[in-house]
Amino acid sequence: MALEWLVDRFASQPHKTAFVHEDRSVTYGELRGLIDRFGRVLADNGVNAGERVLILGDYTPEAFALMLALGRNANIVIPLTRESVVEVDTALAISGCDWRFDFPAGATEPVLQRHAVACDNALLRDFVATGAPGMVLFSSGSTGKPKGILHDVERVANKFLTQREPVVAVPFLMFDHFGGFNTILAITSSLGTVVSVADRSIKSICEAIERHQVALLPTTPSFLNLLMASRAHETYDLSSLTRITYGTEVMPQATLDRVREALPNVKLQQTYGLSEVGVLGSKSRDDGSLWMRIGGAGFETKVVNDILWIKSEFSMVGYLNAPSAFDADGWFNTQDRVEVEGDYFRILGRVTDLINVGGQKVYPAEIEEVIMDLPNVVDVAVFGESNALLGQIIVARIALAEPEPIEQLKSRVRVACKERLAAYKVPARVVIADGALYTSRYKKTRRADPGTVA
To answer: From the UniProt record, which GO molecular function terms apply (predicted)?
Structure first.
C-alpha cells in the first residue's frame, strides 16, 4: 500500500526536516508522530472508514499529517481553503459530509465537529464499498456548476513509489488543488523539505526562498510575470533556486524570456497536468522554449484534430455530478489545442477560451504574446465580448507600468498586432486595467472591469 510505504519511509529518517512552516521546523519523525496521533483522534471520536471528512485549512505539517491519517483510515477527504474556488456549502452539496476539521488561521490544532450533509451519490457509494481512501476536489465552475472530482488516494500515491532526489521546495499551489497535493507527495516521498507559507505574496515567497535556501519553486506564469514586474528578484537573494516549474495556464513567451534573463542560472521547466488525469512527466525543449515533451510511466498521449487526449493510470475515479469524461477506451479529452513537432507539444489554449470573431476562431494567448512584447506593458488579458454583428469582438485588458493615454496605447497595440497577426485577431477594444489580471491563486482571469476604454 502506497500510503503505508510513505508513512514508513518517514520513520526511516526521523531527524530530517520535513516541513518548515512560518519558520517552525518539523522533522519526519515528528510528522510520523502527528500521523499516529491523528489516527488516535479519529478512533477516539468514532470517525469511521468511508465517512466523508472536510478539512478547512491550507498546507501545514498538521494538515498534511491529518490527510494521511484519514487516508490510512480509508476516509473520503474533502480539502478546502478559505479562498477555495467554490463555497463550502456548494462543495458539500455535491460531495456530502460527515465530519469537519477546521484549522483556524495560525493554529496547529484543528477543531473537530460533526458536520452532517446528506448526499447519496452512486459513484461515491460504490467507491466507499471498495475500502480505498478517497479525495474529492472541485473544478472552478467557470463554464457552469462546479464538478466534484473523486480520486483514489492510493492510485495517486502509487506514482511516487519511484524515488527522486530530495529537494527543498515551496508548495505554491493550494491545499484544494490537485497540483498542490501532487507537489507535497513529490517532496515528502523523496524526504525533501516542504517550505510552506501563510500567504503566497511575492514578498512571502521571496523571503522564504532566501531564508530557507529553497531550490525548487513550482508556480504559475502569472506569478512569474508579477515577480518580474515587481523586480523583487533584485531585492531578495534567490540564488538558491536551481529550478522553476510553471503550469496551470499558457506561458507568454515574453514572460519566459524575462525570467530567463533575470535568473540565468535557474532551469525553467514547463509542466502539464489536469485534476482529472494527474500531472504528467515533462521536459522543456530548452529553457527558453514553450515546446515540451510530456508523458512518462503510466501516461499515454495522442492528438485528435489538434486536441490533446490523455490516458492515465493515475486518473480520477470520476465526476460526482457529471457524466463520465472518458471514452470507451479510457482516453480523456483535455480540451487543450496543441501544435506538434516530433515528440514535442506546444499548448495553445483551452477550446473553452476560444473567441469567435465572425466565424474565425481566436486563442487569447496568441494575441497576449504580441502585446506582452510592447514597452510599458506589465500584463494583458484578452477575452471575447458579445457583438450583434460578429458574434464576438476581441478586447485586450492591459496593465501598465506607467500611466499612458488610452488612445496612444490602442494605436501601439493595433500596429503591433497588425504586423504579426491576421486582421481579425486585432483587438477591437483596449482597456487599461484598474485592478489585477490574476486571481488570488495567481492565475490569469479573462474578464472585463470598468477600466479606461478605447
So the answer is: acid-thiol ligase activity
Query: CB atoms < 10 A from the CB of 440, how many?
Result: 12
Contact present, 96 and 52 (Cβ < 8 Å): yes
CA dist., res. 187 & res. 287, Å (int): 23
Q: Tell me which long-range contacts 330-339 makes (C-beta under 8 A, separation of at least 24).
A: 331/302, 332/274, 332/276, 332/277, 333/307, 333/309, 334/274, 334/277, 334/307, 334/308, 334/309, 334/310, 335/307, 336/307, 336/308, 337/306, 337/307, 337/308, 337/363, 338/303, 338/306, 338/307, 338/308, 339/306
164-202 per-position pLDDT tens digit:
899 999 988 878 888 889 999 999 999 999 998 878 899
Structure pTM? 0.86
Interatomic CA distance for residues 218 and 227, integer angstroms: 14
d(CA 251, CA 51): 40
Q: Phi first, then psi: what are they for 416, rounded to 5°?
A: -65, -45
Strands 76-80, 52-56: parallel, antiparallel or unpaired by DSSP?
Answer: parallel
Q: What is the pLDDT of residues 387-424, one digit of tens each?
A: 888 889 999 999 999 999 999 999 999 999 999 999 99
Question: Are 99 and 53 a contacting pair, CB within 8 Å?
Answer: yes
Domain ranges of the chain: 2-157, 354-453
Q: How many Å separate Cα 64 from the centre of its chain?
A: 17
Note the helical H segments in 1-137: 2-12, 28-44, 61-72, 88-95, 122-129
What is the grid cell recorded at 135?
479525495
Fold of the domain spanning 354-453: GMP Synthetase; Chain A, domain 3 (3.30.300)
Question: Which CATH number does 2-157 carry?
Answer: 3.40.50.12780
Please provide the distance, in angstroms rounded to a whole number, between the alpha carbons at the two ends of the chain: 60
